[in-house]
Structures are given as structure tokens and as C-alpha cells.
TrEMBL record:
Coiled coil: 333-378, 484-511
Domain of life: Bacteria
The protein, known as: Oxygen sensor histidine kinase NreB
SMART domains hit by this protein: HATPase_c, PAC, PAS
GO cellular component terms listed in the entry, alphabetical order: cytoplasm; membrane
Domain (PAC) ranges: 288-342, 449-500
Source organism per UniProt: Rubrobacter taiwanensis
Pfam families assigned to the protein according to its UniProt record, in alphabetical order: HATPase_c, HisKA_3, HisKA_7TM, PAS, PAS_3, PAS_4
Entries under NCBIfam families matching the protein: sensory_box (TIGR00229)
Amino acid sequence: MEWQYTPYAPLSFVVAVVSGALALYVWRRRGAPGGRALALLMLAVTVWSGSYALELSAVGLPDKVLWARVEYLGIVTVPPAWLAFALQYTGRGARLDPRRLVLLSALPAATLLLVWTNEAHGLIWSAVALDGPFLEVEYGPAFWIYWAYAYALILLGTLLMVSMLRRSPDLYGRQGAALLFGAFAPWLGNGLYVLGLSPLPNLDLTPLAFLLSGVAITWALFRWRLLDIVPVARTAVVEELSDGVVVLDDRDRIVDLNPAARRILNLPGSGAVGMGLDQVGTGRELLRNLRGGARREVRLGGRHDYEVSVSALPDRRGGPAARLVVLHDITERKRAEEEIRRLNETLELRVAERTAQLEAAVSETAQSERMLRESEERFRSLVRNASDLIIVLDAEGRIVYESPAVERVLGYMPEERVGSRAFDHLHPEDVERVRSKFLRLLRAPRERLSVEYRVRDREGRWRYFEAIGTNLLADPAVRGVVVNSREITERKRAEAALRESEERYRAVVEQAAEGILLVDMDSRRILEANAAYHDMLGYAPGELLKLTLYDVVPYSREDMDCYVRRVQERGSYVSGERRHRRRDGTLVDVEVRANIISYGGREAICILVRDITASKRAKEALEEIREAERNRIARDLHDGVLQDLAYAVQTLEFAKLNAGDASLQKELQEALDTVRRGVRGLREAVYDLRLGEEEDQPFLRLAESLVDLHRRMAPAGRGIELKVEEGFPQRPLGARGMEMLRILQEALTNARRHSEARRVVVRLGTTGEEIRLEVADDGHGFDPNVAGSGVGLKSMRERAAESGGALEVSSAPGEGTVVRVRVPIEGAPEPG
């Protein structure tokens, strides 16, 4: 291989040497964010620049093409290495997982393969020729694809660096600016060369521009300490701070905060940025304290104390744009101060001795005496105004000190019981228990134990206290067991009253004649059941608490869930007559009422159950007697009075035919109309009386028969129409169905007799749980508020209510009348 000298080759060699030295230097600091990627980048520049120097120095086209191919080892490495460095330097290195690195390197690897096999396809260089010491090439399509890809990676990395520069301090900004200059210069030269704009045709300015890059990166490394101080480290420090850091704008909205601040303010993992500080967690409490000064102590959440410092953050014009709030947890310090305060409370015991010593020490200055007096007064005030009793005992259990609060709480003077045994003042039932705790405390220096006890006050009343004892016998400043006691008499009375109330409640429930049970809203498990309900279903006491509502109510689980939801929506529900299942499997007739109550902090269903077996049997017997009497009256009317009236109608019709006088014919016609009206009324009465005999017939057939009867009795030109919805039951509907038929009878009678309606429409429908009846006419109507107390309307309302349903009447003068009835289908389940 022959060589030649060109003036441009030495410059490329210099760039290669500088880049190689930088690669070695950076590799030694590869542990810094971006260190490995920057070392690879510098190594690729070394290969590129060195190979280009050899290309310029080689003689002959084959040799130059060989070194041009070697250059591509660096050319395809620089763009991915630059992007990797930019991601790691700006704190986004976690995104460079192995899968993304493979994808990022796929096109560069394919380009390198095409370079070394170019003779077979010409996709990189479509033509290569010599132009003096330079190569003159025409690029193929694959080159332009890679060229666009490479510039896209360089642009993306540059944008990441620019984004970081805009929000970084001066030091990091200078580092980033030097790096950006180092990246921009070579690619500017490369763009000029590839686009044919180089000042010297076919001279690749890229390796020469790398000399400027080397200077810029060297400056960043040694002047601005690149890889020693990086922005990522600064961000990590803020994120890992144990102190909370919050940035607020001028309207007290959260701009940024670190994880410690989220924990302190009790904020969720995300979503707090942009919200007002007073809208999140304990932010309102913090904001109220921020307005009090630049540095102060606050308590947040009722448990932790913090030292809050506030600093102004200036905007780009130097004016205040935001505030930096730093929260330093001083809870442990406050606790330590509190412990010191408690220990210092015993200082009063030694004040006299210490004062005498200070008076004897003539060398002490007046300033020291003043400070001591102030300290003494301060601690006296703290002890005097404390709400808790502070008692110091010696190792024998004798009282050596009592705080002034003993006078306010128990009525004793502070020094009155000093020297006496503490156990002598306790309730006899508490002495052994408290003595045991005291002996245990003596065996454990600095141990803390809690205990409750009773002590008699000056007026002879027993008062309850809870106390915490601390063994400070080994502390030369105390030399005693410090007992901090708080009175809990009122709390004990409230607890006793609560227990008494609960006992009274249980006594009332257990003595109630009706069954009472509580059912969990979610699981349907029986929580409580009184003795009456256990006896009603034949269970031993407590057995029902192992069951659920599904076990004692003979309906499907789906139906029960549906009706429990109905009770929950309404809050209370009267379900009328139901059946519950006894322990032996038989059913008992009951009447129930369900209500929603709070039980143990959650919702429960309270169900009152009354056994109506006896009353139902009596009612059924009475109904049988009434039905028999109705049937007898119906037979008497049909066989006697109706036959006589029918004969009277025939006689009057015959007399009218034979009467020659017109006035006589008119009187006979009036008499005939009167008798016919009586016949129709009696037929309606007979039909109503005989409804009981038809109770086992399908409801729909009876309704059609009733409508047909009224249709025949209606005057000419008046129509009655029956419309039945699809799915209406084709079976008998029992006693409730009979009541519905009587309501229909009354409504049709009123429409036919009083409304002068031309058209009456009867509609029957069902929801599966209840049947619906609607009777609408186009008659003259009435005012329900005026006529609402009529006998017929009152009778219909009573029948609907007795069946567990409801009746509505809509009417107005001149607008017709609509009667709507809803009655539960007999046999459908109800809650409980």
C-alpha cells in the first residue's frame, strides 16, 4: 500500500489523538451518568478521524475505498452514542433498556453491512472516483436513509440537552453548552460535505471539525468538571432528601414537590401538581402557618412537628415568581425537649438547696442569678399550670414530690401528702395491681409502664386516673420514679353509662314479644336475634347467629337480594304478611317490617317479625263465614227478588203495549226503566257477592267476564275496552286478585253511572312483582280534592291498602278520570 502527503491528513491525526485521549480519560470516569456513552462516542470519533487521515494519505482508489469503509465503524457509532449520552446525562438513562438499544443499533449495523458489500448492490455509493487526494462519490438510496436517521438521533439528543439547559443552574448550563457546541460543529461540517457545499470540493470537513469538538469537551471536562458534577446528581439529591421540598407559585398552587413532601402532606403518588395547597392533604394547615413568617415551627396531621422555612424564588426579571418551602421534621427533637421539660419539672425540689449554694458562691455574677430566677419561675409556671398530676416516688413508694395540680384535681395541698406511702391513698382493689407494676418498674431502669388506679379526693370521692411511670432513680437530677397521671373519671362514668344502656337495650330486646333480628347488609348474615325469634322458629338460643337470611326466608337468593336493595333505597319497608322457615322445615306466617340502622360502624337491616298464625286463622274463619253469607244472599236475590223483578218487567211491558192513553204509556215506560235499573244493580250486587266462589279461577278470565257484564249493561253508543299487556299472569291471583276485581267493579260502575263517558279503557299489566290496573274514561271528570271522600273512592282506597298496594286517582272537571292501582302479586317475596 502506497502513501502520499496531504496537508489535511495531519489535522485528522491530531483529532484522532485528542479524541483517543479523551476516550481514555472518560473511560476512567465511566461510573458517572453518561460516562460509558461519552467514552464510546470519543472512541468512534477517534476511529472516524484516524481512518479519514489514512484515506487522505493512501494512494490509489482501492486503498482509499478500504479506509473509507473503516471510517464507517465510527460513522455509524457516533449518532447512537450521542443519543445514549444525552439520555443518561439528562436523567433519562432508564429508558435505554437492552431491547431499545438493539432497536437503536439495528439501522447502523445494517448500514455498516451494506458499506462492506457495496460492490454487490451500490446502495451506499453508486459511483466512486478519484479527485486528486480526495474521493468523489455519488451516494445511493441506503446512504440517504441512514443520513436522515443519523441526523434524527443527533437532533433528538440535542433537543434533550437544550431542554435541560433551560431549567439548569449556570454550572450545568455551561457544561451542556460546551457539549452542544462540540456536537454541532462536526455535523455542520458533515452536512456541508454531504450536500456538496464544502469550500474545497470533496473534502470531508467532519473529522476536521472534530478538533473543535475535542476542545469544547476538554473545556467541559477540566473547566466545568463534566462527569464530576452532573444535573442528574442534583435531581437525585433533591428526590432523596428526607426534608420535604415544595415549590408554590404566587397563587399558592403546587408547582413541584419531592417524595418526602408528598409523605409529609399525606398526598397521593401523583396528581398534586397544579392543585392549590389548601386543597390537598394537610396543605390547608400548612398554608395557614406559611402566612405567619419566613421560618416557624408547625404541627401537621396532629402527630409530627416540622420546622418550616420559606424562600422567594425570583423569575427571569428578578421579581418574586414562586416560593420554596422546606419542611424539616423536628418531631424527635420536640420529643427530646418534652422529655427534658418533664425532667426539669423536678428542679423545684432542689431549688432551695441550689439557691443557698448560689448565695454562698459570691463569685457568681448578678447576671447568673437573674438567669436562674427566670429559669426557676419558668419551670414553676409550667408545673403549676400543668393539667396532669406529676408525682415523684422514692424506691420505697413514698411521695417525695407532688405538682401544684394536686390541689386543683384532688383538693390536697402540694406538700400535704409528701412523705406518705402512695399505696395508702389507693382504692383497696387497686393496691396489689399497682404495687406489682411499681416493683416491675424498679427492676427496669428508664422503663416506662402504664396503669389505671383510683384515689380518694379530699371530699372522700374515688377518682379514676391513668398514669405512666418512668424509672429515673439512676438519674442524679431526679433520683425517683416519675409518675405522670391524668384524670379519667368522666370517661369511666361514660363507659359505665354506655354499658348500662347496652344492658337495658338487651333486656328490652330479649323481653320483647315480637321477634327481632339484625342482618348484615353485605353478607346477609344474622348478627343478632332475640329469644322471641329463636322460639318462633324453634331454634336453641344462639343457633340463629350461625345462619343467614337466606336460611330462614323461603325465597330464592336473587329475589332476596333484589328486595334487600329495595329496603336499602327506601330506608324502611313494610312487607306485610310473609312466611319464615322453622328449624324443622315448616313455614310460619309472619308480618314483618324492615329498617336500615347503623350497627358496629356499618349498615344493617333491623327486622321486626310478628307471628300472625293465630290471627290469620281467625281471619280466614271469619272470611269463610262472610263468604258463606254472601253466597246465601246472592242465591236469595237471584232466585227470589230477580225472578220477581223479571216478571214485573214483563208485566209492565205487556201493560204498555195494551195502554191506549199516551200519558199512561209514558208513566209505564218510566216505571219500566226504574225496574230495569234495579235489575242491573241487583245483577252487579249478585256478581260481586259471587266473586268469592270464583277465587280459584284465572284472574284474567274473571276480569274479562266483569268487563263483558258492564259492556252489556252500558247504554247504546258507549264502549268499554279491555287491553292486557303481554306476560300478564294466566292463573288465579288469590285474595288480592279478588280485591283487585272489586276495585275494577267499583271503577266501572262509577264510569258507567256517573261520568257520562263515551269510552272507557281498562288496562292490565305486571312487573313480575305486582299487577297494575288502570281504568280511564273520557267523561266529565271531577275535582278529587272535593269529591275525594266519596264512599266508592274510599272503598277502593281501603281495598288497595288492605292488599298491600296503592291507588291513585287523576281527574279534573271536563278532562275525564283515570284510576290507577298497584297491588303486589300474592306469593312474590318481600324482604325478611
